[in-house]
Design a protein that fits this description.
Length: about 120
């Protein structure tokens, strides 16, 4: 088990920025592919960004492309999601997920470990 802990959520106005962090214990996390998912009320959980274990490859959903940036610092066992130009439709609970599989992973079933989530609320 690899505990994942998200932080950085909160309430912001539209157009502002937030940076989410996903911290993990255990050195093996640096070898895990990682993704950020979100789930809004009444909607399915969706992958908004993913990053390979090395950080060399990234994926973004069309809805966040150009506004969100995923990155990782393996020395700190931490993955980040920088969210700029936030919109009310970005309001959701954001989850960090880790996988022992290689590559860019977009499906929930590809991930082995999940954090508890952090709430992001964007007001208009």
């Amino acid at each position: 088990q690899v505990p994942l802990v998200e932080s950085g959520g909160g309430l912001v106005q539209a157009g502002r920025s937030l940076r989410l962090s996903c911290a993990a214990s255990g050195r093996t996390f640096r070898s895990y592919a990682t993704g950020w998912f979100r789930q809004a009320p009444g909607k399915e959980r969706e992958c908004v960004a993913a990053i390979s274990w090395s950080g060399g490859s990234t994926y973004y959903a069309d809805s966040v492309k150009g506004r969100f940036t995923i990155s990782r610092d393996n020395a700190k066992n931490t993955v980040y999601l920088q969210m700029n130009s936030l919109k009310p439709e970005d309001t959701a609970v954001y989850y960090c997920a880790g996988s022992i599989r290689a590559g860019l992973l977009r499906a929930q079933n590809d991930y082995d470990y999940w954090g508890q989530g952090t709430q992001v609320t964007v007001s208009s």
